[in-house]
Amino acid sequence: MEDTIFSIANAFVLIGWLLLIFLPDADFLDKVIHYGVVLLLAITYSVVIPMGFAEAPDGGFQSIAEVRALFMSDWGLLAGWIHYLAFDLFVGHWINGKAREVKLNVILRILCLLFTFMAGPFGLL
Prior knowledge:
With 125 residues, the chain is mainly alpha-helical. It has one domain. Helix 1 packs antiparallel against helix 2 and helix 2 packs antiparallel against helix 4. The relative contact order is 0.14.
């Protein structure tokens, strides 16, 4: 089950990233990203994270040992991955909006988006 959710989440978030890269100025982009992809990933995260805690009772966020315990669980690791997917896409969408506001060159905008897709915070720089 975890592998299936992982695969679906990866494929689903890719739709958002492809839209950002190939149709960065589309009118429907805000609704699709925020109320489609990110919202569904957030809902999925909200369902998966309790399963991670159930599978890893010593898991938590108060120490690196607790985070390690949570990530040793497949459900906990999946929750962490979905968290990354949702937030990286959210940040990529924010970057795209700011780039449009300041009329950033489209090549630079795409580079920022690609870096955000591949390395999260690095693209925000």
